[in-house]
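## retry 2 of 3
previous attempt timed out at serialization; input unchanged, resubmitting
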Amino acid sequence: MAEHYSSFQRGSMRWLLQRVTAVFLIGALAFHFVLLHFVNHAADITFAGTQARMSEIGYFTLMIVFLVTAAFHGLNGVYNALINMGLEGTKRKVVAAVLVVAGVLLVAQGTYVAVVMSGFL
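## retry succeeded, writing output
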C-alpha cells in the first residue's frame, strides 16, 4: 500500500484552516449558485442588481469573507502542493513571500471593488 505523504502536519493550524475554509467555501458557493443561478437567472443579472446586493451589509460581509477565505484556501493549497513536489530552502521562502504578497494584493483589490460596488465609499 502506498505511504501517505502531505506537507501538512496533521493537527497544525494550517491543516485545520485548510479544512475549515473548504467547508465554508462549499457553503458559500452553494449560496452563490442558488442566489445567482436559480433565484436570479444569470441572464437577469445586471450591474444595478449587483450594486443593490452589495449595498446590503450581510451580503457585503459574506462576499468579503468569501474573498479572504478563497484567497487563503487557494494560495495555501498551491504552497503545500509545491512543498509536496520538493520545494525547499531559499526557493521555498521566496515562493511563500510571493504568495503572501499576491494574496494581500488580491484581497485588497477585491475589497476595493466590493466597497465601490456597495456604495459605502
